[in-house]
Design a protein that fits this description.
Layout: H1 18-21, H2 29-40, H3 48-56, H4 63-75, H5 85-102
Helix pairs in contact: 2-3, 4-5
Length: 103
Amino acid sequence: MKLKLNDNDYFYAPLMNKQILEGQIALTAKQWWQQMGEMMGSKLPQGLVELAQKLMMLPASTSGIERTFSTMGSIMTDVRNRIGLEKASQLCLIYRELNSSKK
């Protein structure tokens, strides 16, 4: 589905104006979808607004997760293969906090 300016077939027309689409009016994606759900109601597929809002909460990159996996790889080695998940998580947290305070 391609979005067009002032396309009110699928979306509420006031939310499709040029100022909002170009970012001139400060409106977060979550706010935009919330207003869209309130204005369009049953015209949108069921669950679309909730799905869109959840997607907006996802991180833009996976670098934080990759750093955590790298840290866990340093903690859970072949030598320390019997360390429990809870203890490894605590060590990972300590390691990350110590390294973040050095910066």
